Protein 1
Amino acid sequence: MVESVFPKRTSIVRRRFVTGAAALSCGAAVFPALARKATIESMVSAELPEAASSFLLNVEKIPVRVGKQHAKGVGINGSLPAPTLRWREGDTVELQVRNHLHEDTSIHWHGIRLPADMDGVPGLSFAGIPAGETFTYRFPVRQNGTYWYHSHSGGQEQAGLYGALVIDPADKPAYTADRDYVVLLSDWTNADPMDIVSNLKFDGDYYNFRQRTVGTFLHDIRKDGLMASVRDRLAWGGMNMAPTDISDVSGIIYTYLMNGRSPAKGWVGLFRPGERIRLRFINAASMTLFDVRIPGLTMQVVASDGNDVEPVPVDEFRIAPAETYDVIVQPTTDEPYTIFVQSEDRTGYARGTLATHDGLLGPIPPMDPRPLRTMADMGMGSMKNMSMTGEPKSDPMAGMDMPSHEKTTPDSQSVEQDKTVHHHAAMHDMDMSNMAGMDMGNMDMPGMSMHHSMPHEGSSSSIKEQRAVSGSPAAMPETQPAKLKTGVEVQSLAPQPQNRLGEAGDGLDGNGRRCLRYTDLRALKPWTDPREPSREIVLHLTGNMERFIWGFNGKKFSEAEPIRLMLGERVRFVLINDTMMEHPIHLHGLWSELENGQGAFQPYKHTVNVKPGERLSYLVSADTPGLWAYHCHLLYHMDTGMFRTVVVS
Amino acid sequence: MAAVHGPSSKAEPMNKATAVPYVNGIMPVMDQRIYVHALLDQFEARYSGSGGQFRYDGQAWFGSDYNKLWLKSEGTVGTNGSFGDGDHEVLYDRSISRYFDLQSGVRLDIDHGPTRAWGAIGLQGLALYFFDAEATFYFSDRGVAGRLTGSYDIFITNRLILQPQTELNFYSNSDGARGVGRGLSDIDAGLRLRYEWHRKIAPYVGITYSKMFHDNVGFRDNSDAVGSGTNFIFGIRSWF
Ligand SMILES: [Cu+2]
């Protein structure tokens, strides 16, 4: 029925899209005009589209309605979010992208290993796709799993130009499932992305209506006493920072979407009791970290950023923008289950339902309390490490709630490694001067007790990292930032950055649920490149929230040299987050092997979420030449400078 | 103000990154954009036992993260229609630290009184504990002058905000024609309670206290006197 609408040449391709579009968009609070005709049945029962290797993608303006407001978004083939694409590993895919907008567009295949000129970043890969023109992407598919694609032009990603990408494995899949659904999460706003940046430049708290008030002060006094409350206010005020700084852009203008549907409508995935359901979570939001749970069901995390991992049973996980996690759930009864996805700052949620037939709704749980930043987020270490002896705890496993993660207890190998890395280099380099006026001993910091440092420094690498930090002559060439000082582009420096890979994140640790931690991720297959890195590249994640300037090593993109890698070399990226916000850092074109203590089974990722005050590292094999983008995947952090060009030659 | 459009003159020359052969010279990220904003901090009617007046105080800027053109203007219109206390500044603004900008330029006193011109140099920014502060020195052949302003936002709720504010003016020499005394010449302090039903438009009510300090007897003291003392005020704070 639908096919006849389209020209013959593209009909096969188009039909698939309409199926996908219907699955994602029809009847949604955010719905495209073209998909509106599809029936509700096709929507709820649609799983993944068929795999294909040839696509015609029309980038176009699409009318959108959220609540009573009408707006224009950018989508593909009448669909917003853009349709789910399904490829096969081993195929060569060809994607014609036709630009029907009045401005340049581009599509970046997020997490896909491909020749640099196919990566889709204007200026780096190609010149972009001018209005009215068509660009053909063509490249072999050498991986499988869950990925996504999005525009790398202006604010188009915020405006809806993103879609899911599922690649079937050439061999048998590592995990089987009876049903397979994409769960694409995003943040929709009717506001102009350029206005959002401009507002944040004027007032970094523009979208934060959860700041501490006279009321919360009185409440804190009743709870903690007058002096402790005053001291706490003075400590934060003395830094011109606020513990309520969670998300730069909040639910005040965002509607959080699941597969394009607002919480009012919700998305529905059907199942029969006893079936194994694979849910492919993709965070396609511009600025929002999400916490995902399905009350009543345990989720087995089986893949991260497209790569299979050993199953980790969790109740909840945090997903930063651009990350993907595949989970398998197996509901045994026919009751409906709510997929509940809160924004990190708890100003809103996205929602869906797993149900045995359409129309059933599970209960919607109340949102959790919003987290507050702590001194650990300021890079001032955990309370434990702040002890006056200056010595970190000697038992690396103390304080870890291992029992709830039996499945993920580190193997003997990584436990051994732990023993070599007790001495946190940062401890010796602590700069106490930034902490003047703060009485750490008496400060009450809710949630603090949960933030134990987890000295899983990962591989033996940490010794070298320490050497790099203390500045002793290391044999290998290093790319070290000049001594960083606070200034226009650097609001704060973390005096004691911590390894926080063993924490689930602000608002999750200690909430009584099993929450996924980066240390839990263990790849099914060992690395393909067992070489030791030949050098380290240390990057501080820096910014000034008051001025809304972000960057690396105190510099915006336009002020900095590119990062140069030699083709074939293996390097370690060390990231130190000097800010009090999370930054999901994404390296295009190459894998990032997170050093999370899993030895040769460290997971491959394309986007690594760096917590506030955290120091972490990953290994990169520079095996594909070209110009690659390297950036924070919070759109407005990238846009205001947190971006580098990586040159592999 | 050529510097406004020019490249950042930080120690590092900007766009070293252009050493990379960007396709068609396209920068993948445009982080040197120009932004434009204006803030009308006070736009209010003042009432006291002796009459009423209207007062405005606003600033606008346009520019990049480091270099901006900054405009400031304030003034008072009495019930008799005379424009007093007119102060208008054009400044080049340079970001110099985490929270502070250095500003330099020209101040013109233009109102019903005689016009005066000053050179200006000062600091503006966010002092610790979130105090908004400005300290500016002015100089001319008539001597020097100084101005200190400060304000603070107390969040009663996230939308109901109590703002104490004060402005102090100092002059090294009195200027009889403009009703300016030597030393601390005048003070304008206020307590405003605003409601941000929208971030950019917030109505407020409050009280102000203002006083001119005259060290000489015999100053003309008519329109300037209106509004002196304690006033009840209402107005609207807005920005774009
Ligand atoms: Cu990307």
Protein 2
Amino acid sequence: MQDNSPRSFAERPVVAPATTQDALQAAPHLATAPPAGSDRRVVDAIREIVGPRGIVDGASARKVYECDGYTLEKSVPRLVVLPATTEETSRVVSVLAGAGIPFVPRGAGTGVSGGCLPLQSAVMIGTSRLRRIRSIDVEARTAEVEAGVVNLEVSRAVDAHGLYYAPDPSSQSACSIGGNVAENSGGPHTLKYGVTVNHVLALEVVLPDGRVIWLDREYDAPGYDLVGIFTGSEGTLGLVTAARVRLMRKPESVTTLLAVFPGVAQASRAVSAIIAAGIIPAALEMMDALVIEAVEAAYHFGFPAGAGAVLLIELDGIAAGLDALAARVHDCCTREGASEVKRAAGEEERALLWKSRKRAFGAMGRLAPAYCTQDGVVPRSRLPEIVAKIAEVASRYHLRIANLMHAGDGNIHPLVLYDEDVPGEVERVLAAGNEILTACIELGGSITGEHGIGIEKMALMPKSFTAPTLAAMEDIRTAFNPRGLCNPGKILPSSRTCVEVRRPRPRGGG
Amino acid sequence: MGGPGLPCVHCGLCLDTCPTYRVLGTEADSPRGRIYIMEGIRDGELEFDDEAALHLSRCLGCLACESACPSGVSFGRRIEEFRPRLAERTGSTRRWQDLARKAYTSDALVDAGVKVASLLDRAGLGGVRRKVPGLGLLPGSLPGSQPSSSAGVSPLRRSTSHQPLRARARVAVLTGCVADRVLPDINRDTVEVLQRNGIEVVEVAGQQCCGALALHAGLTSDAVELAAANANALAGSDIDFVVTTAAGCSAMLRDYAHVLAGTSAAGRGEELASMSRDICELLVEIGFDAPARPLEARGNVAFHDACHLLHAQGISSAPRRVCEVALGRAPVDLGENAICCGSAGSYNIDHPVLSAEIGARKAELARERKATVVAVANVGCMLQIGQAVALAGLPTLVKHPVQLLAEAYRRSDTGA
């Protein structure tokens, strides 16, 4: 066992490497009870570091952290710590590492794979108070921002300079940069501009033993691309406290088209047709009839009634030539059976179109009490096949499944609607999701495009990777996180042990 | 996930629109967290203890979360159901209840507060006074505030100078329980602006406070009583519109059908709800004259949205339009316009520290914008932002858009 006494920032613990399993067994008990007994010293030490506003230990205040946007599995953290600076974060992690207590980083809690679910009585370290934009370099087109800065806030801060931060997840008005790095978040504009990893130049990281390091690859730094390894590691290698991100110049001109199709099959074919014509839209999104119904209920955009699917196609670049490009896209859609193609008249109409798309996830609440967002990838050309498969799965499991897709890059988001109060429905949702993702693998795709593995998809990892590949991943984690204290029980199935996950509570009435 | 209205799907899109989450960073002080706590209490998974009550009571009621929610969750309705139980739990809320009751039953208390504030200010104790919960909000006589010279007599009963001979419409002005005592100039200017635009302003006997203060203090039966009195007095009289200058009042009037549901005044409540208008909304709806000589404000006039207009009623362009006509140019936005200033009724008394922190951000933005005037169409926001800029030592004035318009009309009259 480790020495349980807290250590100061100055005397960082030298950690003896141990196996993940050792670390897991060292982690104590108690998921819901407030920290007590020998924990008290740790809590006091942490309180000393972060002050009263940085510590959340009451029962109701902790309970709200029991899940993120993935609500099928829940677990209450034994303590939530909200450090306000990198130094505080580092000292808190040192104390926890010294006491052998596992911890889980959490951004805004908008994740949808349970990546920040606190397993093994972990302490949660939230980044919501790390909210400074440290610097903006207009000339170099970079910004150094802390982990808790909200994605959209970065673009707002540099808007006056004609710049923006490109990765735009649907939750960009709430999700934080640290969470984006952890999940390697994408968004509708991934097709042309790439995902988070393509826009992160350097990371400030607190390692699981409390040391603070900078990973920098801005000028083709020699050595390993550790920024690449950290981005998308879902908080299992360390805790990101700040990032230097790339800023993009806003395109000179943007135009958005809406194409209406009788069904998803025709819309899928149009997607391939557009790409085959050599056009790379900034975004190429698909919504099916159920999604249209939900966003129409929320925003009254005026989608034609009875539309089977719509494509939202955004083209950007220099103004000259954009009209011609739009005409070619129009042709592609019409040839594949679009009943109507219209172009957003002005900025206001364009903004409304995107609003309906970006808020489509949340708008699902208008159709069902709950839904589970799936995230899978197939080669673009095989979209029609996966769409047919999803329909078949839905009918076999007696579930309603809505389809939202970053169709341009084959990233599908089946939204499985359900009601916790219906006996057996949660189990059917999980089984249906599993089948869809397995089909993605079989079609040559992947089990996640941008939501991460989290806790949700660990069981599918052995279907996606060979044992030696998984072992190599495990080795990388062990190199950074030798005792498995940082976000235990995630991504790699081997480490999923002694889980005290609670299924959703049965609900009566209401 | 049941409860009134549509279910929360836990997406988190509301988080960053919540002023308390932005300041504290704690999920329990976010809309999503509060819904979770309320559901936990309802399902017997959480105790309704002091801690839960604290997080719920920190809600400003600004409803920015409803604007952000893609699922259409009625957060306001949910927290409203908890208000009476919250009031039982927390001592500060009980103190506020007493104060709220006095505010809408007795003009004398508010008048006395205003007088004390002025005395302290004149004695050079304005800086100290500004930090006292409740008292700090009152305009007093510091720079950045309007002298309340006319306290004592409701301006509504004095202003007949511009009454039109042939009216385009007949309206009653809901004077408001606090606004009329604290910043009477707004009501006076409102009457003047309406009359100058050919609208007859009539007095309707029996009108009361709208009941919003009572409702938010958890005094539901008082609120219903006041609403019924207003519905019977106003909906039954020969007028076209009921005009308010306080966003919270018009939002409340619009909600009368809900407040009075199941009572004998329900029908009248619905009628009154359909007659009620915010002053700026009405001016834009039926048209108003541009002043011959718009105001020439040196520096920036920065516009801020009032939550109970923007989020509760979806009104955003009308008050901007009134400012634009008064100024002859569009005002700039103060910035973070969808985020509450921290005023929120009793908030300054229940949570003085948090309220001041939220308000301080508005002063920061006023400084960044180099705003000489902050225009905001609600008395509560005016007092809160007024206090924030005064504490920050800024010379910024805080005005209601209708005041700017009245000033522009008067300027055009004199040709000065």
Protein 3
Amino acid sequence: MSHAGERSPAATLTLLDATMVGIGAMIGAGIFVLTGLAVETAGPAAILVFALNGGVTTFTALSYAELASAIPRNGGGYAYVREVFSAPVAFVMGWTRWFTYMIAGALYALGFASNFIEFGHIFGVSLPGGVLFWAGSVVVAFVTLNAVSTAASGSAETLITLVKILILLVFVAFGLQFVDLGEFEPFFRRGNPLTVLPAMGLTFIAFQGYDLIATVTEEVEDPERNIPRAILLSVATTVVVYLLVVFVALGTLGAEGLAGAGETAIAQAAEGFMPRFEPLGSGAALIAFGAVFSTISALNAVVIGSSRVAFAMGREAQLPVALGRLHHRFGTPLVAIAASAVVMLVAVAVVPIRVVGNLASLFSLLGFVIVNLSVIRLRRQQPDLRRPFEVPFYPAPPVLGIVLNLLLGAFIDLTTWALAVGWLVVGAVVYLLLSRRRGEPAVPTGEPETEISDPEVTVPTED
Amino acid sequence: MTESLRVIVAGGGTVGLRTAELLDDRGHDVVLIERDPDRSERVAAEYVASIIEGDAARPAVLRQAQPDRCDAVAAVTDDEATNFAVCMAAQRMAEIRTVMRIDGDPDELYPQYVDGIVSTASLTARVTVNEVVGGGVRSIEEVGGRVEILDIEIAEDAPAAGKTLAEVRLPEGSLIIVDADGNRIGGPETVLEPGERFLVAVEGAVTDEVMNLLRG
């Protein structure tokens, strides 16, 4: 008898690989797709937006690092919350994380499509089909790839990410000489510092990729030490790269230009000052190439991430168990991948990119609130749990993480909230149907603690 | 079945760590309790279980492993009294399957209190006998009281070699269950071909008789 469901991946990812998994997802799309959108909302203060988001994310990243070092499970945030909270809370976490990855996938696919078409323009080729066509195609291509092969090769992903970083650093190196500080005046759009907050909500998804590291923990070497390091290193590196790139883009193209360029903002900034690179051609071509490359690798990362969460939930019977099975021939969670693909395609087809970004950010924020709560609750519930990495200055970072994430969530528009609530209602229906089928009470009545009367303890006192 | 269990393993020595590894290999979730910081660090490096650092026999420590959410507790420290205490405490905290490790002779009343007993002494003895005697006969498992399941290869010149089961009279207290490939249930027409292996359930008292028939 073969136990296909028990196949478990080998520990093959080094600290560098694991760090690159996180950076790959974060630098993937946000920087190319969201920079223009952030500038449109906040003006030159977009640079402050990214700096503050980096700060907010760091608090949650610390929480992730502590949980990942103490709880050896694949499945990311969902697995940790499952350890700490009752089933319904874990379900909400898993349900929203799953959705976040799928939405992020849609966002990356759309970003890919715009930049791919731009890439064609640079070479004077008019590609047939619109943005939707290319976005849909790339989703189908990567879902198929992930459905038939488990070889999400760590070293290939590492190489791709290093190339991305290199392209961006080339952009920064050339651009720094042309930065005009005058472009940063006035710093706040319409002189209003509050425009920073909605822009933060909009672009928050840019910094949510590091939790992908937590979905592949069992594949990392020396995981109890390397995973916390990889999480923190990837956040730090990403924030630095973002700030440099946004600084250069703002200082060269200016806020108005960037805002007008939308998803291809960075490529247009590059056009202004980059020399030619043979055989690629102009600087814009190099950046467009980087963007196409990056959005593809980020898309690949979230396809893996989303299927892992659905798979973990299926195994715990929190979603239909078919999602928690590996395919007998391919050895991949085929049903989980296919289900993710359907939602991604729907999001690509019907939801505008700005709403897609908002929705993904909102669910990220909510998920991160629960993760921070988990750290606090786990410290109380299991004080003697071995924590190879501990959040410094506890409890300040998780508390700040909760407060700031909620604050940012409050600045996301009502349409997005309505869509979010809609998805949660769908989740509630699924949950109730599944728990009825399992024959369990849907909501446990309080903590199931066995009552044991306290025995009398006589403490000897010295007279 | 892909449904995973949640198991508490009390004791992070060699036995505890190996138990946790095997459970993790099969996709189950493990919470391990270990008192000694050096040993718990060793287990942490394996990354197969979350670890509660403390004395598992203390209810305040055991409760942190959340027995009410677990399917089983395996108390496998090298101290029998601790293991028994862990099982008893876990049972009072939750409905949970209890398995304890003993090193010496078992207290005959243990089966009334715990669901499973692992005797390291008899396990070691059985494996030792398997290794010493070699390939022909392997003890698979002690079912409970006196019955053992043996994996026996029919020897070339054994009395029963080449005969059907109808022709051979196995002693009362023994039963050929299935050939070792697991393909055929033993029946009257089953031929005991030399070189083939069979799983045989044997009561201790007739073991040598069965051996004589099948091994010569």
Protein 4
Amino acid sequence: MTQDDLVWRIAGGSGDGIDSTSRNFAKALMRAGLHVFTHRHYPSRIRGGHTYVEVRASDEPVRSRGDGYNVLLALGDSFARSTEDEAYYGNEKLKPLAENLDELREGGIVIYDEGMLDEDDVADLDLETRAEENDWHLYPTDLRGIAREHGRDVMRNTAGVGVTAALLGIDPSYFETLMGESMDGDILDANLDVLSDAYEQTQEWEFTHDLEVPDGETEGEQALLNGSQGIAYGAIDEGCRFIAGYPMTPWTEVFSIMSKHLPKVGGIAEQVEDEIAAAALALGASHTGAKAMSGSSGGGFSLMSEPLGLAEMSETPVVLLEAQRAGPSTGMPTKPEQSDLEHVLYTSQGDSTRVVFAPANAEECYEQTRRAFEVAYEYQLPAIIMYDQKLEGELRNVPVEFFDRETHPDPGTILSEDEIAEAAHHASGTFARFKRDAEKGISPRSVPGQKGGRHLTSGNETNEWGHICEDPENRKDQVDRRFSKFEHIAEDLAGDESLVTRHGPADADYGVITWGSQQGTVFEAVDRLNADGQSVAALGVSQIKPFPAPEIEAFIEGVDEVVVVEMNASGQFKGLVQKELGAYGEKLSSLLKYNGNPFEPREIVEAVENTAAGDRDAPDDATTFVPATGD
Amino acid sequence: MSTFSAIDQDREIDREEFTPGVEPQPTWCPGCGDFAVLKALKGAMADIGRSPEEVLTVTGIGCSSKLNSYFGSYGFHTIHGRPLPVARAAKLANPDLEVVAAGGDGDGYGIGANHFLHSARENHDMTYIVFNNEIFGLTKGQTSPTSPMGHTSKTQPSGNAKSPIRPLSLALTAGATYVARTAATNPRQAQEIVAEAIEHDGFAHIDFLTQCPTWNKDAKSYVPYTDVQDSDEYDFDVSDHGEANAMMRTVEDKLYEGEILTGRFYVEDGRPSYGQKKREQGEMPAEPLAQRYFEDGEWERSIDFVKKHT
Ligand SMILES: Cc1ncc(C[n+]2csc(CCOP(=O)(O)OP(=O)(O)O)c2C)c(N)n1
Ligand code: SF4
């Protein structure tokens, strides 16, 4: 745990403005020159229900939420149900304070809203004693009172920010500027008054803590982005001009961003009746030559199973997103999990020909979305991006120049009319759309409206001219051709370090493999382990299919033992590694977590330490350790 | 060379251009009503002067959905019940194409009913032809949403206890701006209606009565029929929603009483199609999306959007 990072947690009820307040807080620190990273925890309720967001800030780049936190701003849940409901719901008003104390680090700060929380209730928490034991510093403040005096109760969050700024030495002008950018008129004036009043009052207090915001200086202009934005911007730059979808958490965010921006760049966004339609629309748009995408989360993606198969059979390029959440069925809508891997790899009938990526952070979301479009439109097949509720909402700073990229206005393998005229045709004039002996398995493609390119495409097996055909020889050739694409895709992707990312010493004794969104946390854990004298390397895998067998095999071969870290109960990625490599059962153990919260670095640190010590226990109750079969 | 030069070619079109030169001879049973739809569609295209390469037919799965295997346009034979969403997007992505979606009654009124309602509601500028044979043909004769009450089949051995769906009323209620019924036994009217539907700006639904002599033996071959527009007995205004609705109910009741009424039942001109609306709202370009890839013009970059997050 680095001591020079600061993790601020704002807690309250859903609807208390936790999201916007924390976003502004993170932005202010980013503008102050710090690296920032946010972690969101929220329940599947629109109003009320305990929620929090953490903002971690450091002068060094931050890759994960870290372990615990050191400043709590407990707003009190203004949407809490009456305390009579306590038997069922608990005293939700108190939750923002009570529920968060366990993870507060030693020497931490607690700011809570005296105006909302009853003294007696607070006394029941034994806060004073715990504070003494843990060297916590308590700053009860009448946030609601300050808010009321200058504006309305809801401005309690602004008051809290003012108090935090004063306690941690943050220049309040960062917040003033941000407020000016998002509001105006009386609302702005009232908020500014609340902020400065809270800030001034607090400055007069005697501070007992020694926490401060670290000094930092990031290079170049920074932007605060989450994975959803990474995906949407990557799609736009790669020339995606059509999206269709149906809302489902957590995919909705990408859908909304695309719906807002696509029309501005000459594209079309469609909200439709269900996910079957959504994927089918994407195929229809792609069939006419547009770069198209759709997406959903678990249950909605299940509905896309049939159109996905149609894309494979008809060789219609398309990019689909799968924003995982805890399943099965509707599971836990607002909690992350990585348990849809097998679903995404194997859903839909037949032998599948799809490409699958699982980006690890906002930058990879951008890169791999571009990659997905590139591969899909080059090879005429569906490409799927798997991410999860963690990546969807976690904000981090990315240098603006990262996005200073060329766009890709390229129709992929669609021929021009001149090329169509030169291409193979049947004597009747019908275009050989599904030519069997095509180079790299990619047969020539035309789109409706092009002269000379007339053909039929189908979800049934077809002959070279697109006509339904059950001839055994044709069937075998066509399947072989479609499968042959994978060899070339694997070659194209090989060596891309954002797809298979190695971290840590080259000659490590122990290895940790992870995939998708847990990569940052694993890398941070590995850094700590090495700093503590262990010898550990990590591999973050974002290329799922084609499976990067050589890279993974080399990594496993190079270490004594490997822990595979993933957020599911059945060890799906470990299973995939064993299936693909046909070995290593005796060398791979699993560290699993499926309680709805992503891993914390300390859990991985402990699991590797245990492994090194020959001890096969899980680090804590929240995780599960499955030893290698050779144990 | 332009990207989509097959579109809007100004020349005489011969219906035979729509007969694909490659292998497939229709696999439809002798006497199947589906032949009539194929014939009407070819004739209609020639009548309105559309060339095979500017037409996209999108079909589902079923005997009827094999239509585009025997029709020489660009074609997409999709999955059961889903031709409409595929077709809608094709039209949005390239408004210059003439898009025709087709499938059976099981395809369109059963598994795909949700898409039927929403496509009609949204008033997409396209034509949707449902081959209504009151039976599942391809899967060998099961009861369909348009099978009459009491109809027995292997999956409904004691007889269908459900009343048949009312496709015309449904289309109208949902928001279609052109609703007609024609029959395989009425080739002249069929061709006229198909041509009219294609030229209509908006969602045009044709419930096309097609007999299935193989599985629906007791079904009438839809003769004698009456063309309501030619008959003195039926007088209603096709542009009046209320009159059309009342007429459709009569038509739908009578079908199962043995009286076959065909014709145009609702024609609404002037309501902007969905694409047109979207263009007016600035949410959709007028040109085909794919054109810009070929023309390689100025492309906006996401960095302008990213700058809002600094
Ligand atoms: C999802 C799915 N369910 C079932 C089927 C099997 N199936 C193929 S065609 C068909 C029904 C055909 O009836 P209809 O749509 O009325 O067309 P017809 O053959 O009568 O022209 C069915 C159930 C399928 N292909 N896909
Ligand atoms: S089974 Fe019926 S619908 Fe199918 S081809 Fe034969 S007659 Fe036509």
